[in-house]
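Troubleshooting entry. The earlier prediction with nicotinamide-adenine-dinucleotide gave an output that would not parse, so I re-checked the input for stray whitespace and re-submitted. Clean input:
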Amino acid sequence: MTSSGAPDEIHVAGRWRAGRGRPLDCVDPASGEVIAKLTAASPADVDEAAGAGAAAAADPGWRDLLPHQRARYLTRIGELIEARAEELAHLQTRNTGKALTETRALVASAAATFRFYAAALETTETPLTPARGPYLTMGVAEPIGVVGAITPWNSPIASDAQKIAPALAAGNAVLLKPAEATPLVSLALARLVVEAGVPPALLSVLPGKGSVVGDAIVRHPLVGKVSFTGGTDTGRAIGRLAADKFMPLTSELGGKSPTIVLPDADAEQAVAGILYGIFSSSGQSCIAGSRIFVPESRYEEFVDRLVAGARRLRVGPGTDPGTQVGPLVTFEHRDRVAAMVDRARAEGATVLCGGDVPDDPALACGAYYSPTLLGGLGNDSRTCQEEIFGPVGVVLSYRDEEDLVAQANDTIFGLACGIWTRDYRQAWRLARRIDAGTVWINTYKQFSISTPFSGMKASGVGTDKGREAILRYTRQKSIYWGLDEDPLPWAR
Ligand code: NAD
């Protein structure tokens, strides 16, 4: 471990050691300070991890555990995460810049995820299906063997847990590839998984570049499924490789989610929810409500309220308990967001607030960007069609419900949607008409692990979360048990 408590080795095939890839510096985006120096994994490490993972998953000592016995390990992991919650939250805040309030919630969610899948595993039933002859018919779910879990940088421990917990529950080994910039909390999680008594080769954590380490995982012949969360272009590239291998792929991808104010909405509630939806996590959230639709009749009122609210947000380091908007994950990403706002200006956007790097000297060393609202753009602008993944929202107006639905659905994405109204009939109608895997009505960005999560259109294929997620890490097999004493009639 480094003096800051950050892990400095990676976990390959059951051993802690340096990777065989390139040097990898982990940086605190609030200060620019290097907080850990690792050596990334290499394709050779992926190969070793896959071989050892396959052997560990096939070992009768693990393979033949009964569900309630395997569940105990998951419960223990959840307990260990809870016991180290503060340490994990601080580590994630230092590596990602996210506010401590958010990283604490992510750590709690990771612990709850392991407990949930322990309970789900113990209570998953093997279906006896209705037979159409003198036999018993049943379906059994078998482990795939080795699965790849590839995660982004915005919520590492929670997204890692959502893949590792059901995959281990199903009896698999996992090769986890955290995002290049933010591997530290995933490595810390691996220490807890090992401490819980899980055979160490069942979880390898392989940091490094996606195009090298992630690609090696996707292509590896022993990897029988990949669960990917990340950008749409990356998901598309992985999908092509998965198709070549006939390998199942779950992909949770990008979004450009509409958050909709209906004419009767309670302005105070809607504004608080919209600000949270776009500016929490500094907008680095797949489900960020980045297109804000307001009725023409209330456009000025909402622009004024949203701008006043955005200007009040406290921007600062994630470690400051008062911070609402932390730095972006890296300086490169901050510059990318700034360039997209410049492009929006060139497209004719009016900057309603923000649109710059904060001038507070105390923030000069960090990768900060001011909460930004834009107006004056049509939904067909590039700014409204492409994910920015930063604290940038566009306020748009609509005439009536038909116009609203047409604009809201005019996007390649279909991840989430928020609706603010007191009119439950219209809320229901819209919730069914908008292309989105998740719709929030009079709330936003609320989650429960028992509720499935998925995207429509270019926001992804397949589903995470929910008790059925365990089955998504299995191969289905049907078994027919003949009950007749007599030989089959055909050959007689
Ligand atoms: P990204 O696609 O660049 O990277 C995601 C992960 O994939 C990283 O671990 C990366 O190293 C790896 N990767 C990159 N290229 C790869 C390749 N060729 N083969 C295999 N792996 C590869 O995404 P990001 O910038 O880390 O994260 C932001 C994106 O993630 C946004 O688009 C966001 O919307 C999306 N996201 C989606 C969800 C969801 O549940 N739908 C949740 C969080 C983030």
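This one parsed fine. Residues 150-154, 177-180, 210-211, 214-215, 218, 229-231, 234, 237-238, 252-255, 286, 387, 389, 415, 455, 459-460 surround nicotinamide-adenine-dinucleotide (CB under 6 Å).
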